[in-house]
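Predict the 3D structure for this chain.
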Amino acid sequence: MNFYTFESVDSNNNIHEIIKLLEFLTEKEDVQWIISDLDIVPQYRGDYSPSEKIENRPQVYLFELEIKNNFFISLNFSKLRKLLEEASCIRRGVFICLQEQTELTEFYATVEPKEPHAIQHKFGLHEVRILDDLIFILSDSDISYLEL
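Done. Predicted structure below.
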C-alpha cells in the first residue's frame, strides 16, 4: 500500500485539485466512490433568504445532509464530478473507490481513522482523505508522479 500526502495550493478553493485527483484514480468506468465524513462548501451564489424552500438550495447542501443522515453515499464518477463542480472547497471528507458491483452495507469512514495507513473499506481500491489543506491518498498504484 502506498501512502501519499499533498498540500493544497489554496484550501479555500481546492475543488479543482480534488476533481483532478479523483479523475486520475478513476481508472475504469465500472467503479463507484463512497463518500463519508464530509464537510463541503458550495460555490457562493449570493445570499439566500431564510424562507427559501429546500428544493432551491444547491445540490451540495442536500448531498451533505444525505451523508449526515446515512453516514455515506455512493456515486459513480460522472455524478460525483457534477456535484463537486458546484462546490468551492472540501474542508474534510473521505472518498473510497470500489468496484461498482461491491455490495454496500452500513459503513462509516472518518478522516482521522485509528489505522491511518489502511484503506477503511476491505474492498477499497483507493482512498482519499481531505483535512483542511492536506490531501492524503492510499493506493496500490504508484501515483508519485501526479501533480495537483
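The radius of gyration is 15 Å.
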